[in-house]
Specification:
Keywords: Hydrolase. It comes from Sporosarcina ureae. This is Thioesterase domain-containing protein. This protein is 26% helix and 34% strand. It is of the alpha+beta class. The chain has one domain: Hotdog Thioesterase (Thiol Ester Dehydrase, Chain A, Roll), CATH 3.10.129.
Length: 141
């Protein structure tokens, strides 16, 4: 299974009054992970947007396991959990430096035309990108 990794230094601004990372910041880290995965595969999400397409989140599930704190470095591991005709599901693990799990998550995305938000298949607009996602989805390689 192809997995992308991105290290992130936890910034003070990402923490709450309890000194731990505020839960919504994990969503930002997942976006960074997705962008890194796409780049590692040789593609660019920004190019997709320039072509008139978006990939909004249609579903999200996060399980918080252990707090992350200011000053530590976490690693966001990202992979394609599943990829079908219209939906792509990304999987994530956010790990502490010692390898313990801070959070796990999945996000589901559907590519839509920017002008009308009608779904469109990645296969139709980028067949080579679609083929890579199909090949690397979890359990397929």
């Amino acid at each position: 299974m192809f997995t992308s990794e991105k290290e992130i230094e936890v910034r003070y601004a990402e923490t709450d009054q309890m000194g731990v990372v505020y839960h919504a910041n994990y969503l930002v880290w997942m976006e960074i992970g997705r962008t890194t995965l796409i780049k590692d595969l040789g593609y660019e999400y920004a190019q997709l947007e320039r072509e008139g397409y978006l990939a909004p989140v249609t579903e999200l599930s996060v399980k918080y396991k252990a707090a992350s704190t200011y000053g530590e470095t976490v690693t966001v591991k990202t992979w394609v959990e599943s990829h079908g005709k219209l939906r792509t599901v990304y999987g994530y693990e956010i790990l502490h430096a010692d390898g313990s799990i801070a959070a796990t998550a999945v996000t589901e995305h559907v590519i839509v035309k920017k002008e009308n938000f009608r779904p469109v298949s990645l296969r139709k607009i980028h067949p080579e990108w679609d083929a890579v996602y199909t090949k690397i989805q979890r359990g397929e390689s």
